[in-house]
Amino acid sequence: xxxxxxxxxxxxxxxxxxxxxxxxxxxxxxxxxxxxxxxxxxxxxxxxxxxxxxxxxxxxxxxxxxxxxxxxxxxxxxxxxxxxxxxxxxxxxxxxxxxxxxxxxxxxxxxxxxxxxxxxxxxxxxxxxxxxxxxxxxxxxxxxxxxxxxxxxxxxxxxxxxxxxxxxx
Length: 169
Prior knowledge:
Blueprint: H1 15-34, H2 39-43, H3 54-73, H4 99-119, E1 126-129, E2 134-137, H5 138-164
Antiparallel strand pairs: 1-2
Helix pairs in contact: 1-3, 1-5, 3-4, 3-5
C-alpha cells in the first residue's frame, strides 16, 4: 500500500461500502506513515518509557486483523502471528523486525480480512470473541478495526514527526 493508493472514502453509499472504504483509508494511512523510512527509522521508539514504534504498530495491526477477521469471524483456530502464547504485546517489540517481515505479515492479514468480509453474507454475520466470551457481528468488527486504526494512526503521526519531522496525513 502506498500513498498514491490511499482511497478517498465516499460521502454517500450503503453502509457496507462506506465501512469498507473507511477501513481501507485507515489501512492506507498507516502504510503512508511508514513510506520512505529505513528499517532503523521504522524501529525507532518514541520517548521513554514507551517502546512504541511505527514498525511495532504495523506488527500490532497484523495481529488485530488476524484476530478479529480470521479468529473471531472466520473461527480459524490459529495462533497470533508473533506469539504462540496469545500475548498481544509481543507484536509491539519490533527491535529485530524489518519492513519486509512486518509488512508481509500485515498485508497478508489485510488480504485475508478483505476476503472474509467480501465473502460474508452481510454485516450481521456473527463470530465469537473468546477473550470477551461474547458473540459479535461483522459490523462490530469493522467498526472496531476503524477505531483501532484511527487511534494508532494518531500515534503514527507523532512517531513519524519524531523520526523526520513529517507531519499530517
